[in-house]
Amino acid sequence: MKQFIPLFLLSASLFVSxxxxxxxxQSTEIIHEIQTDTLYQVDSVFVEDTTIIYDVDTVFNTVxxxxxxxxxxxxxxxxxxxxxxxxxxxxxxxxxxQFQIEDGWVFYLSPFMSYVANPSLNVYDFSGYIDYWTxxxxxxxxxxxxxxxxxxxxxxxxxxxxxxEDLPAISGTSIKIDTKRLxxxxx
Length: 187
Hints:
This protein is an alpha+beta fold. The chain has two domains: 4-52, no CATH class; 76-186. The chain has helices at residues 4-17, 76-99, 179-186; strands at residues 22-35, 39-52, 104-108, 115-120, 123-134, 140-151, 162-166, 175-177. Strands 3, 4, 5, 6, 7 and 8 form a six-stranded antiparallel sheet that branches. Strands 1-2 form a two-stranded antiparallel sheet. The chain is elongated and about 115 Å long.
């Protein structure tokens, strides 16, 4: 049995040397003789296997920025949004002047349910109805309005890039109480 151990270690080292791993093998031979009726010889081989593997991963991140330059044009939707921003203040000023109420809810019809005209490039005329409710919903005032919105420059989705003025066809104020709807509501 002693003759096979060196042969085994030699063949194991030849086998391991063909790999890409670094391997350290330590072997210890311990022989115990035990005397009984017959002679037993015990062979033990302890193998310590240490493998060191180094992995290196390289990751490349490529970031692309895309800049899209679009031509923005004024349209009825951006004009209506700007009109609402300006008219909210005008409605609250009107309600405060008429009824000494300082805050409330302002509701508009959609642009498709309002009168919309486009008399020239970047100019939109709007008229229609506004429903005003007090903050606690205790009072309701139907209003009529009419304003001309003119696009000045810059991003049309920003209300400050528009101007608001009274409609030329309306004499006096561009906002008033709709007495017909108010009367119908009271009845």
